[in-house]
Amino acid sequence: MGPVIENYRTEKKVKTEEAEANNNIPASDTASSGFLGNLLVVPMDGSHWVGIKAIAQEMGRRGHRVTVVIPEISMRMGPGKHYDTVTYPVPYDKAHIDSIMSSLKDMMEKSSFTEKIRKGFSKMQKFTGFMHTTAESLLFNVSLISHLAQQNFDAVLTDPVAPTGSLIARKLGIPTINLLRGLPCSLDMKSAGCPSPPSYVPRFLTRYTDKMSFQERAFNTLVALLEPLLCRLLYWHFDQIAYQFLGEEVGIAEVLSESAIWLLRLDFTLEFPRPIMPNVVLVGGINCNVRHPLPEVINDTR
């Protein structure tokens, strides 16, 4: 085993040196051990793509091998300088995507809680149907999944709003890293094992804060009790997809609970206090532009 391990380390070291030379990466930017990972990225379209693209680009810039799997037709997703792109066919066109997105624009307009639920649920059904189609196009693409299984990925980076990446990670037996803002019905916090006391953790769409009256806490508790039913309605089709793809009776909640790391696009200074687990990391500034120094003219006038 000694020569094999030594050869493996030598190969990794050579790859690190080559990557640093090709990308002009300082040695301090790569792992001190010289390890270069092999990352599979299964992103979601729209604004969700911004944060994941930034991570994929930076990981690739540092010499890691990054493969991004995207549909042939999308709103924003596309190739990049520091990662490889693998595409798969989907049964819709750009006009269909635009119609889906336009129907979601008024979801956050000011209205009563019941009105938000009524309008939001019907529109979310249309949107989740679109996600189901995209997920099935990837998961049941036998040749592509077989190709991915042969690439020896170390982990999957994904947005669990569409749990396609989580299902692929379970299929390949590798860890999942989630990057997200949040999931409907607090599924992210439940899957991560985070306590969520309704006495001071406001539920989605209630517009409450951590300071609630007794009546508000009672209503917040009622919403918390109804969340499992909402989750079942929203994710039942994904549960069926999981059963067909994995060949085992497992739901999305169980698949998500196996995630290794949760990267939440939240900032603790802007959020209400709540308990989180050690593998939940707040990365709220990841979508912010890199700041630039003030021009010398302005500095001179100070």
TrEMBL record:
Q: Which keywords, in A-to-Z order, does the entry hold?
A: Glycoprotein, Glycosyltransferase, Membrane, Signal, Transferase, Transmembrane, Transmembrane helix
**Is Lipid metabolism among the key words of this record?**
no
Q: Say if the entry is tagged with keyword Nucleus.
A: no
A single Pfam family, by name? Answer: UDPGT
By what name is this protein known? Answer: glucuronosyltransferase
Q: Which terms does the record give in the GO molecular function aspect?
A: glucuronosyltransferase activity
EC number(s) from the headed UniProt entry: 2.4.1.17
Q: Which domain of life is it from?
A: Eukaryota
Q: Tell me which GO cellular component terms the UniProt record holds.
A: membrane
Family per UniProt?
A: Belongs to the UDP-glycosyltransferase family.
> How does the record classify its membrane topology?
Single-pass membrane protein
Give the first-level EC class, as a single word.
transferase
Entry's localization field: Membrane
